[in-house]
From TrEMBL, chains A, B:
One of its GO terms (molecular function) is metalloexopeptidase activity. Residues 164-366 form the Peptidase M24 domain. InterPro entries: Creatin/AminoP/Spt16_N (IPR029149), Creatinase/aminopeptidase-like (IPR036005), Creatinase_N (IPR000587), Pept_M24 (IPR000994), Pept_M24_MAP (IPR001714), Peptidase_M24B (IPR050659). PANTHER family: AMINOPEPTIDASE, XAA-PRO AMINOPEPTIDASE P-RELATED. Residues 13-157 form the Creatinase N-terminal domain. It comes from the Bacteria. This is Peptidase M24. Gene3D superfamilies: Creatinase/methionine aminopeptidase superfamily, Creatinase/prolidase N-terminal domain. The lineage of its organism: Bacteria, Pseudomonadati, Pseudomonadota, Gammaproteobacteria, Pseudomonadales. Pfam families: Creatinase_N, Peptidase_M24.
Length: 386, 386
């Protein structure tokens, strides 16, 4: 199996989360979702696409972690740094690991009678709800409580190794975007242009390409989340492609806008405004700044530039093993930036009815300010005249 | 937005699930997971990679469906065939759609006081557990119950359009596998060979490549789910690559084994045995056969051929909008094959300690027997002597 980090890095993650667990009075933390399973175990697989078998990872208050996994996964985890790997013959719909899991949890030292799970904001569990209820019953007086704040607090601060993989992912996608003007032209579909970009991203070394969205229209677009469509690009269109590619599971998440032929002046001016908004955010992106202040700084540029609205609902977010992670750059999020965070800066606006433009870069918060991980977009929209 | 099916197809899916809901006495079905949201709504996006915002789809016992989605998604769904789209300004961590959702559910006609959710086998919900508990509270005397059997019963039978997309996906990946012997050679890593295959799959027209696993070793491998590693292929190795690529969301899921140089005779014989096992399954793959009988037919070939064990736990499964869907070809699954099902036939065995071989094809159950959707692998292992 690919293990992208040293055993020390995993030990460090575990000891940091154990410190959080102590504050939250948890006897153990039970993890089931792919990104958290990967973060604590190092397990690198896309087998999550098969929903048949749950996978469980237990971090006790003290001591070694325990993986409780279906037999198909045991050979991979038994050879790793993890303290103990237990497995059951799966699929076994009559008891898909729940008894083995509850027996293991009940065998741990009990102090607070509380086990944390991924229950809160931006967290989901990867096990059937029926099995969650069954687990609750089997645990009796031991409570299942929300452990997600512990996890997010630890994952928010990236190690140098994590930042390096995000940097590599940003570089691979930046290289692929740089090649786009040479192959894209009016008359092609969003899908054809995006496909050529995808090939460059995979050939360039990305391990996976879990997210690509595209949208286009005269002078802007209406949304930014749909898969590339069969819409044919015409003179005057702006095409956005937004990419989340990974290296060792670590995402980049940024978009680029391309104009085709004669693009309306209003669109060009709006594009410069959203670029200026990223600059306003960069200028204060340092430890101690609240993400609500990033939002305010960007809005200070967007509103005078004629912003009508923005259905995205925030102007950037955290980035790492997931395409989006907390925090959210919005007025109600007062998360304070700390050294080692990686975030997106993503101003966007509808500058005319039905015409939206969004710009996005990825940055790493260092003591001396932001390190821009993406290859900086130019202020003037790139125009393709092929 | 890409809509891969006619409005009639969606209306048909909804009326079939409404018939199941009537049997299960459900006033509504609430769907949150990406494949089910897509199946009933047609929504085609990889935005699921962002965990920030839940998406809800409501199928009432009678009448039009209702999408309850974050504002970022409203433009896409409002233009579609769906009866009504409601949205809330998101992210809004203090109430991420739960009040709008519960108000909408409570406004529906009440007959049984039961709302189905994805709670059972091979099902997960895509909303925080805390919000599920909040929803339960808000619904008061209306019970949330398991609605997943209704959904799986409907999804199990594929329409001709669904089969066509799986067929296309199988063809694209078959073409890419056919090119592999021309570019792969000893001395390359699993990763390099898999990357070239990935490029061919994307360039060949796959919309996404959510799953690729690879493993290699002298005469076989120990597991089949890890991402391609940096292991260098040597003379005598067998390399397996297992691929789940999609067209309009519909997966293929099959693997191919490649020998390099002088492969041990035992491995070659074992490869012929697993091929023979697929033939034994094909011979009885028709409406009326139980999947436990498919398992038995394959075991009748594998055991005499020297099978030690098989950590995969089953010998094939359903296929469609997910890499794996029910049923599971194993002794305890007596699901009866019906016309329109698409399944994998996936015999595998450890034929010597630490040496596993797995073979997989995808078939469509028709009244006249199996239609093999993958380009049939040869009985003799393909040997690469580059």
């Amino acid at each position: 199996m690919n293990i992208a980090f040293s055993s020390e890095e995993f030990a460090n993650r575990v000891s940091r989360v154990q410190a959080e667990m102590s504050v939250h009075k948890l006897d153990a933390l039970l993890v089931t979702s792919p990104p958290n399973f990967r973060y604590f175990s190092g397990f690198d697989s896309q087998f999550w696409e098969s929903p048949t078998r749950p996978w469980f990872f237990i971090i006790p208050a003290e001591g070694d972690c325990i993986a409780v996994v279906p037999e198909i996964g045991a050979p991979l985890l038994q050879g790793s740094w993890i303290g103990k790997t237990l497995s059951w013959p799966a699929p076994r719909p009559s008891d898909e690991g729940v008894t083995l899991l509850s027996d293991t949890l009940l065998s741990l030292p009990r102090r607070h009678g509380r086990i944390g799970m991924e229950m809160g904001r931006e967290s989901v569990i990867r096990m059937p709800v029926n099995d969650l209820f069954l687990l609750k019953d089997k645990l009796g007086s031991v409570d299942l409580v929300d452990g997600s704040p512990c996890i997010w607090n630890v994952r928010a601060i990236k190690s140098s190794g994590e930042v390096e993989y995000i940097r590599q992912s940003c570089t691979i996608v930046s290289d692929a975007f740089d090649k786009l003007p040479a192959h894209a032209r009016c008359g092609q579909t969003e899908l054809a242009i995006s496909r050529a970009l995808s090939v460059d991203i995979i050939a360039g070394g990305a391990h996976a390409l879990p997210f690509m969205a595209a949208a286009s229209g005269p002078g802007g677009y209406e949304q930014i989340i749909s898969r590339p469509s069969d819409r044919v690009i015409e003179n005057g269109d702006v095409l956005i492609i937004d990419v989340g590619a990974t290296v060792n599971g670590y995402f980049c998440d940024f978009d680029r806008n391309f104009g085709f032929g004669k693009v309306d002046d209003d669109a060009l001016r709006a594009n410069e405004a959203i670029w200026d908004a990223t600059e306003a955010a960069f200028a204060i992106s340092r430890p101690g700044t609240k993400v609500s202040e990033l939002w305010k700084a960007m809005m200070g540029v967007l509103e005078p530039a004629g912003m009508l609205r923005n259905n995205v609902g925030r102007l950037g977010h955290g980035l790492g093993l997931q395409l989006t992670e907390p925090p959210s750059h919005m007025p109600t999020d007062d998360t304070v930036l700390r050294e080692g965070m990686v975030i997106t800066i993503e101003p966007g606006m509808e500058y005319a009815p039905g015409k939206m433009l969004v710009h996005e870069e990825n940055i790493h918060i260092t003591s001396s300010g932001p390190e821009i991980l993406t290859r900086r977009a130019p202020r003037e929209m790139v125009i393709i005249n092929n």
